[in-house]
Design a protein that fits this description.
The protein is mostly beta strands. 6% of the residues lie in helices and 52% in strands. The protein has seven helices and 52 strands. The protein is elongated.
Length: 923
């Protein structure tokens, strides 16, 4: 009767509405039916032939999916009973199984899947050669299978749950308790590859492993190193906690071991301790360096605090922070302070000093606000910081003679006319003298060009319609101090302030083939301090001057005007017979004549007299109260001059060597050849200025030769001073070469000799080095060495496997290389020296001897002083999981070396060893 009642209930399910008391019983019945149908069919007795049944179609399999919500009686949404708890559906996901062969043992209630067996339930997936499901206990056994022909153990289990993947030799999993036991499992979590002989899965987030080894090697089957622990607790994507752990290299145990260890595995940034490096310094003794703490404040900003300590009492600390907000801004800040003690107290060479440096880089995304922009590039501090620092990572910075900084905010107000203003702070510091100049603050404002007589519609024509004017204002407060007085009360002594207003007016028009332009400029300058110069008699009885500073507002006004006429002349030569290399040559000449005049403003000058009004100088002496102001005094002498200039360039069409190309190729024979001089109409002697010549001559597609020279038409007297007599009339040549220079700078690489002509525009020189070298005044190339910033995590450059064939992995036919060459020469003959006062050649480059070996360096030779310039050598070895490098400065005042070996992975970046020999400090 019970069986009939159950069958009757099923019938009611199909033709009548389901009632609440039968829900649980019916749900269990449907689940068993779907489970058995999705796995297999019942095996008949051995005496009965096995009927052939077709596999269900994909559409039929979809109909077997049981949705628990469809089996629950709909409830009235207006009724709410807090005492009734909604029951969780028995079958939450569709259970899918696949295999080449399936067998169901009804008697023992065991299901066996064989050959490419797969079980999927929700985010859990189990793949294996053989899977056995015991429905009595809920255990699931997964094994590989042995290949009959090769006797190899194949189709090992692969257990996937979410993003966690485990690949053991065999696995035991209980589908009720969700616990598992695996043997010889392997899993990958972030940078770690974890192997364990036995693994016990307690829940979805905790694994216990016995005799486990983990590594960051890219070859997990044969790692070059690993850590071996007898027992570990493994939390995926979070941490590995071990007991006794030992480091093995090439399957050989090392003395490196710990009683316990903690390895973070999160992919997000986490705060943590930074392990310092240790060693011995000749000047400061034993040390601990670059140890501290990293604060992962949030997704936008972090903070690193590092410190150094030496046994002789020297210490230092650094604060570094990087910040970024997508589509808004990014930057980094660094403050370094060092208290240095040289030698020991009581010795003659004992010295004690403090140095500091502030470096801040900030840039704004142009898309954040097109009408306003804020940027900062700050590099200020002690002049001897880069030459004496404990942690000098940028050798090129030691050669920098100037520190500079700028902080700017600009705003644009759209409209007609457009208004722009800029507020900034600038800083300049000379390393040799320690002189510091700051402009704090600067203000610059401008109103865009206005055409008051232009028509409302149509193009502007004629001299009147093209008249335009602007308005510019510049306010500045300049502070000049020394390195010692910087950031002290004495810093603001002698500060100067001033405001200058400028209104330029210009117009242009055409007269036949000539382009004519005229301009005038009006300036008004406001100052808040002036000077008074008084004649006095000093203690030696000589007449001299005494200057007093007077506070108060004062101003002066100046103006100047000028005009210019220019045109363009073309010369063309064509090869009529179309034979030879050159098919056509075009010479472009752009002559220009200009006139400029600066009136005399002697009304702002007074004779220098004593307090009583006496003139004690043998000759009249004049001084202006604006002499020592910010913008200086206006000109006292009237000047009127004519400028003459000629610009040339030479281009040609060259026949292609490839006969398939019919069009000639355009090349530049001379990029530019310019001459410029002036004639002073108001002068009474030496009216002609020297001719300034400059040229850019292309040697190859990537190499240009830059030349410059000055040609003086006047002669020299016996004291090597210019006299008002032409050199040709004094028995010399037409012009006298006073100085000249040549400059050559180019980059070559192996790609320049292998790429096709279609790649001509690909310039390796466009690649920029992204490090602090540029912010500290370094170069984009490595002519002065590369910075050694080992604080940054090493980044692997992944190569597309399709680009590397099997032969190139074994035999390296192509050796990548790169060569930078810079040549500079300066000739001086202004006073008959006839000498090359500067001539140097600098070379730097890198050669990749093998896919994992690279050698590089930089050096140079000073031909004028007969000496080798700054030289460094660098060696880098990629040890797969490790990185090894050695940098050496063998000669010069900056002799030093640095050796480093460490693990690449960021999670184990503290496992490293470095030794260094710092340059001797310069006092």
């Amino acid at each position: 009767m019970a069986f009939q009642k159950q069958d009757y209930s099923v019938t009611k399910l199909l033709i009548r509405r389901l009632y609440h008391p039968l829900r649980t019983l019916l749900f269990f019945t449907v689940f068993l039916t779907a489970l058995n149908y999705s796995w297999s069919q019942e095996l008949p007795s051995s005496n009965t032939p096995i009927p052939v049944k077709e596999e269900p179609k994909p559409e039929e399999e979809k109909e077997l999916k049981v949705n628990a919500e469809d089996l629950i009686k709909p409830q009235d949404s207006t009724k709410q009973d807090s005492t009734v708890t909604e029951k969780k559906p028995f079958l939450e996901y569709k259970l899918v199984s696949k295999a080449s062969r399936k067998r169901i043992d009804r008697r023992n209630n065991i299901i066996t899947l064989y050959d490419n067996a797969i079980i999927e339930y929700g985010d859990t997936k189990l793949e294996a050669g053989k899977i056995v499901i015991d429905n009595n206990t809920g255990d699931v056994f997964a094994y590989g299978i042995v290949n009959d022909s090769t006797q190899a153990y194949e189709q090992k289990p692969v257990f996937t749950q979410g993003t966690n993947v485990v690949e053991p030799d065999s696995i035991i999993f209980n589908k009720d308790s969700k616990k598992a036991l695996t043997y010889n499992s392997r899993t990958t979590q972030g940078e770690f590859n974890v192997f364990a002989e036995t693994t016990k899965k307690v829940n979805d987030s905790v694994f216990y492993m016995k005799r486990a080894r983990f590594t960051t090697s890219s070859n997990p089957d044969n790692p070059e190193y690993y850590f071996l622990a007898q027992k570990i607790k493994f939390v995926p994507k979070k941490k590995i906690v071990t007991g006794l752990v030992n480091m093995w290299i090439a399957d050989v145990p090392t003395p490196i071991g710990l009683p316990f260890a903690y390895f973070p595995m999160t992919e997000e940034r986490k705060s943590g301790v930074i392990v310092p490096s240790f060693g011995n310094n000749v000047n400061q003794g034993y040390f601990l360096q670059n140890g501290g703490y990293y604060f992962a404040i949030n997704d936008y900003v972090d903070l690193t605090v590092l410190g150094d300590y030496f046994t002789n009492g020297s210490y230092g600390f650094r604060i570094e922070s990087s910040y970024a907000k997508r589509y808004s801004f990014n930057g980094n800040f660094r403050f370094s302070y060092e208290n240095q003690v040289q030698s020991e107290r009581g010795f003659s060479d004992f010295r004690k000093s403090t140095i500091y440096n502030i470096n801040w880089q900030h840039s704004q995304d142009p898309k954040a606000n097109p009408d306003s922009r804020f940027s900062a590039s700050v590099n200020l501090g002690s002049s001897r910081f880069y030459s004496n620092s404990f942690n000098q990572i940028n050798q090129a910075a030691t050669l920098n003679n100037n520190f500079s900084s700028s902080i700017n905010y600009s705003k644009t107000f759209q409209g007609e006319p457009q208004v722009n203003f800029n507020i900034g702070v600038t800083h300049s510091q000379l390393v040799q003298t320690g002189e510091v100049t700051m402009n704090l603050p600067n203000f610059q404002g401008s109103v865009s060009r206005v055409f008051p007589f232009a028509p409302k519609f149509g193009a502007k024509k004629g001299i009147i319609e093209n008249i335009n004017l602007q308005y510019n204002v510049r306010a500045e407060n300049r502070i000049t101090t020394t390195d010692e007085d910087f950031l002290s009360d004495r810093m603001f002594e002698g500060a100067q302030s001033g405001i200058r207003h400028t209104i330029p007016v210009a117009t242009n028009f055409k007269v036949g083939p000539f382009s004519v332009s005229a301009n005038a400029n009006y300036e008004e300058t406001w100052v808040f301090q002036t000077t008074k110069t008084t004649a006095v008699i000093n203690d030696q009885g000589l007449a001299t001057t005494e200057i007093d500073t007077l506070s108060g507002f004062d101003s002066y006004r100046t103006y100047r005007y000028g005009a210019s006429v220019g045109t363009t002349i073309y010369g063309l030569w064509e090869n009529s017979n179309k034979k030879g290399k050159y098919q056509a040559i075009r010479h472009t000449i752009r002559p220009n004549i200009s006139y400029s005049a600066n009136p005399s403003f002697d009304q702002y000058y007074d004779r220098v007299l004593t307090e009583s009004g006496q003139d004690i100088f043998p000759e009249e002496r004049f001084a202006s109260r604006f002499d020592r102001t910010l913008f200086g005094a206006p000109g006292r002498n009237f000047s009127s001059s004519i400028g003459i200039g000629v610009q040339n360039n030479l281009e040609a069409k060259v026949r292609e060597r490839d006969t398939t190309k019919t069009e000639p190729r355009k090349v530049q024979l001379i990029k530019s050849l310019n001459f410029q001089t002036a004639y002073n109409l108001a002068g009474d002697s030496l009216q002609w200025s020297p001719i300034n010549m400059s040229a850019v001559i292309p040697i190859t597609k990537k190499i240009d030769l830059n030349l410059n020279a000055n040609l003086d038409p006047y002669a020299l007297d016996a004291n090597n001073r210019r006299v008002d007599e032409f050199n040709i009339n004094n028995g010399g040549s037409l012009f006298r070469l006073t100085n000249a220079g040549a400059r050559l700078n180019f980059t070559l690489s192996d790609k320049d000799f292998t790429r096709s002509e279609d790649d001509e525009e690909d310039d390796l020189g466009d690649e920029k080095v992204e490090n602090r070298s540029l912010s500290q005044g370094g170069r984009e190339d490595d002519l002065f060495g590369k910075p050694l910033d080992y604080a940054e995590n090493y980044k692997n450059k992944k190569q597309d496997p399709e680009e590397v064939n099997v032969d190139e992995k074994r035999y390296r036919f192509k050796i990548p290389w790169r060569l930078n060459i810079a040549y500079t020469m300066t000739y001086n003959n202004a006073e008959r020296q006839n000498e090359i006062n500067r001539q140097s050649l600098m070379v730097s480059g890198d050669v990749e001897l093998s896919p994992r070996w690279s050698v590089g360096g930089n050096t140079g030779y000073d031909f004028a002083n007969n000496g080798i310039s700054f030289t460094t050598l660098r060696f880098n070895r990629d040890l797969e999981s490790f990185r090894m490098s050695f940098n050496w400065t063998p000669i010069g005042p900056n002799q030093s070396w640095f050796f480093f070996i460490g693990i690449k992975a960021s999670a184990l970046s503290d496992i490293k060893w470095d030794q260094r020999r710092q340059p001797d400090p310069q006092f």
